[in-house]
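Write out this protein's structure.
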Amino acid sequence: MSPAPPSLALGIEEEYLLVDPRSGELVAAQDPKFMPACRERLGEQVTHELLQAQVEVGTKVCPDIPTARADLHRLRRVVADVAGEHGTAIIAASTHPSATWPEQRSTEKERYQKLTADFQVLARRQVISGMHVHVAVEDEDLRIDLMNQVTYFLPHLLALSTSSPFWNGHATGLKAYRRAVADELPRSGSPEFLESWRDWQRLVEILADTGLVEDATQIWWDVRPSAKHPTLELRITDICTEAEDALTIAAIYQCLLRHLWRLRVRNQSWRVYRRILIEENKWRAQRWGVEAELADFAAGRLKPMRELVDELIGLLREDAAELGCLPELEHARAIVAGGTSADRQLAIYRAALAGGAADAQAQAAVVDWLREATLNGIPVSV
């Protein structure tokens, strides 16, 4: 008997970086009044992250993408306004062009202090921000089944989200350098294939009983069953600088889970590929972003992202129409055509250098664009 249809309600979490609005440099220490002011206006929808240079927000549980858009716009605007009141600004980017990790200060919370003590330099290097998308899949075994299948599409979503071409003041040659830093931690990367919800529980029990983890929140896979909600949590993507790009990622992910559920109802499924094959496509997405060619394993050849996005839109069109997010799905073509945040950052940086700017000035120009683009399309009052 097939499980009940998943509700596919969704929530989006974003991590912003705090910068000095004059110099563009990353802020090593928060104004102690900043977070209380955010909490006064946003309550539990805003929280600390590992570093003081970061702030995390999360939308409410949203039935659809239009509702998520309104809440995400509100969160970005309020945090930006509060940051401005405390002498800082926010950027939605997964790395800062010139920040160096040894200069950053961790948040003085027990969880983060323990993380730093356990992982040492690996934790201190986590000067990165991401976007997580939760989609509700209430049936536990269905949640695991869909995780196994949706893993195939994770590199495609990463390619569409890239916003981390710089690290420690250098252009890395990668469009999503954040993954190189995040995957240094144990229990990260592509998920293992699991047979059932009980298989997942047993894995967590083994890790916890032997003292390797405290709970499931310390398994940082690219997609995972949430430890706090009845959701499947997408974690692979960079944070999108522009909110519309973020909503496209969320829409594609929501549509994919609906499509894979529909396959199951017909006693079908997407083929589950070996982890090494998914990691190969993930590397190509990390390196080239929307300029990547990813492997189509069924066709036995590489395909450009433009072709893959066209195929993805065709595959998911019925689901997007039903979920009310067809415009967001089709916006993926605009991302491929115009480039991601990473592409725009690099274009601004290179243009500044070509115009005679020093390296530090070129990186500051990138931060100026990031500040503006983070609030692009968001009303002044929401």
